[in-house]
Amino acid sequence: xxxxxxxxxxxxxxxNLSVLHDALDEAGYTVLVATHGEQALQRAxxxxxxxxxxxxxxxxxxxxEVARRLKADAQTAAIPxxxxxGLTETEHLVAALAAGGVDYVTKxxxxxxxxxxxxxxxxxxxxxxxxxxxxxxxxxxLDAFGYASMTVRVADGRILWQTAxxxxxxxxxxxxxxxxxxxxxxxxxxxWMARQLDGVLQGLTEPPRWVLAAPQPVAxxxxxxxxxxxxxMEEGQGGELLVVxxxxxxxxxxxxxxxxxxxxxxxxxxxxxxxxxxxxxDIADIVGSSPATVKKxxxxxxxxxxxxxxxxxxxxxxxxxxxxx
Length: 325
Fold this sequence. Notes:
CATH class of the largest domain: Alpha Beta
CATH superfamily of the largest domain: Response regulator
Shape: elongated
InterPro entries: CheY-like_superfamily, Sig_transdc_resp-reg_C-effctor, Sig_transdc_resp-reg_receiver, Tscrpt_reg_LuxR_C, WalR-like, WH-like_DNA-bd_sf
Oligomer: single chain
Protein name: LuxR family transcriptional regulator
Organism: Comamonas aquatica DA1877
Number of domains: 3
Pfam family, one: Response_reg
Radius of gyration: 28 Å
GO molecular function: phosphorelay response regulator activity; transcription cis-regulatory region binding
Order of helices and strands: EHEHEHEHEHEEHHEEEHHHHH
Mean pLDDT: 82
Distance between the termini: 43 Å
Largest sheet: 5 strands, parallel
C-alpha cells in the first residue's frame, strides 16, 4: 500500500487552515500547516511535501516570495505549488505563475475544487518523478558498463547533469573542468552539437559521433574519447542533448576486429581506420605503409567480410565494435 501524499498548507488565517485541513485529512492526505513564510520554507525543506497550497498574501514574506525561494532551492524546486488567492486581477494571477506556481484557486475556498486541482498536479508530479527515476537508472546502467553520460544545454554548452565518470573523462581529455551546473563543454564541441541538434531530435538512426584525443597523449597509447549525441531522456527538453561517451583504444578495437573476422593484424588495423572514415592515403601514413599496400589489404578485407564496398566493410566493423566495445 502506498503512503498517503503529504500536503503543506500555508495560510495566516486559522479558519482557512481549519477548513482545508479537515477536508484533506478526511480525503486521506497527510496534512502539514504553516502560518507564515519562514515557517513554510522550513517545513518544506524538512518534510519534502508532495504539494504545497500557498496563500498569496501574508504579512511579512508573501506567497510570491515564498514560491520564488522554494523554486530557487534544489531540494524543493520540484514540489508543485498551488496558490490560494482572493486576487483575481490578471496581473496577480500572472505573478503567481511567474513565481513558480503551477495553478491557483480563488477564495473563498471550495474544498472540492482544491482537491480536484491537487489531484491533477499530484499525478503530473508522480509521472515526472517516475521519468526522472527511470532516467537515473538508465544513466547508472551506462556508468556500470563503462559508459559515461551528461546532459548539455546546447545554447550555451552548460553541463546540466553528469556522472562522476563523465567528469573524470572530460577532465582527462581537457574539455571541461568543473562541476555540473557551472561547467561548460568546449566551444568546438558545443558548435558541433548545435549543428547536429535538429538531426538528433528527429531521431537519426545512428547518433552523431565526436572523437577527442588526449591533449598530452602517453607515448605508445592510442586511447581516445568517443562521444555520441542522443535526445534527452526526459521529454520537453528540445534544446538539450544527452551525451554518452566511452574511452576507446584503437589497438584494442583492431584486435577485436581481427578475432571477429579472421583478419591479419595489419588487415584489422586498416579496417579499423576505414571504419573511422579515413582515406587510404591517411591510413598509409598511420600504419606506416604505402597507399597501394593499403588498397591490397582492403581488397583482402572485402573478400574475407563478403562485401564489395568500403562503406559496407566500415558498417560491419562499426557494428562489431558496438557489440563488443
